[in-house]
Elongation factor P
Amino acid sequence: MISASDLRAGMTFVQDGKLIKVLDASHHKPGKGNTVMRMKLKDVRSGATYDTTFRPEEKFEKAHIDTKPVQYLYTMDDTAFFMDLETYEQYEIPVET
């Protein structure tokens, strides 16, 4: 688990079953109130971005993301094809992603 105050730009976490990427994060202390975390977030699957605030002590599940080197092969219709450089396995990804 990771607290909202530890989230930084580029990190990913799970919120309500959705994979979320932090685009921007900052502490905000209003004059007469508790500190809040202002964040610009992106839903990785849908591509939607939105601004929100969290209390610094809120906890989230940190997402485990694996990356691997791939090579772009070609695009056919609305699908791009990539090849894993280690196993030569091919992946199809919709162009809209």
